[in-house]
């Protein structure tokens, strides 16, 4: 689907635009690093000064790197034809190499990752920082933030990081503010087949009896990064309404992000239309969720992300 109502970045773009503030830290530009579950295109990542580190997925023994939105080809066709499907978190040495390269180029590093309760990527980033400290690097120049989210929610947090850094906050302060603001945004989602999510090992305690019931959809959310079920809806129209109901009143004046997973757009279209009906005038960002998260949720899943803070 095409994106709708997406404001372009209004501040100076490029890595050089991001500088640390405060007398207690070196005056270095700040490079933002995130993993590929963030739903950015390559041009938008470059405009935001973001380096995206790829997660990987494996179909029948062939390992592929997830990359920027719009550059992952027809991944769900691969899933349909594949028999053995797996994903990989970003490895520690990959983060360490990226951090080292940026430090050597006189940048500080702000790294935001997919929720630590969904992936080992956050742990890898933390271990990479510890590795560089053992090498004699200054650990205060590297900040790691567990976003508690993914997809459109992670993109919201990355954009907020850009804003805070451009305003001149010190690196440590930016990380602290983001850890507060991750609590002030939400993401709700539904999947067409609970068995796909269950096999991923990330389902947790939910109303499992809903699985297999015709035209019944479990509404779930990420709460502090973990999956929690919150409602059950009958039919896609009611499911879209249930997702939109999760947006708190304070967030309804902000833009929202609808993320579809794979090329099956029925659920995505329904949620977009529901937002348009119930929240007229709201900017809607429409995204593709990419192969790694799609593999865990199942093709045809959809999520709705919002934030309670100003963009």
Characterize the structure shown.
By secondary structure, the chain is α/β, with parallel strands linked by helices. The chain is 33% helix and 23% strand. The chain contains 10 helices and 13 strands. The chain has helices at 42-48, 75-81, 92-104, 121-134, 151-166, 171-181, 194-199, 236-245, 266-278, 291-297, and strands at 30-35, 50-53, 56-59, 62-65, 85-88, 108-113, 142-146, 185-190, 216-223, 226-234, 256-260, 284-288, 302-307. It has a 6-stranded mixed beta sheet with strand order 10-9-8-13-11-12, sandwiched between helices. The chain is globular, with a radius of gyration of 19 Å. It starts with 29 loop residues before the first strand and ends with a strand. The model is unreliable at 1-25 (pLDDT under 50).
Provide tags for this entry.
single chain; 311 residues; alpha/beta; 4-stranded parallel β-sheet; 33% helix
Give the helices and strands, then pairings.
Layout lengths: L29 E6 L6 H7 L1 E4 L2 E4 L2 E4 L9 H7 L3 E4 L3 H13 L3 E6 L7 H14 L7 E5 L4 H16 L4 H11 L3 E6 L3 H6 L16 E8 L2 E9 L1 H10 L10 E5 L5 H13 L5 E5 L2 H7 L4 E6 L4
Helix pairs in contact: 3-4, 5-6, 8-9
- The count of helical stretches stands at 10
Approximate shape: globular
Q: Report the major sheet.
A: 6 strands, mixed
* Fraction of residues in β-strands: 15-25%
Sketch the topology as an H/E string, one letter per element.
Answer: EHEEEHEHEHEHHEHEEHEHEHE
Rg for CA atoms: 19 Å
Distance between the termini: 23 Å
Average pLDDT: 88
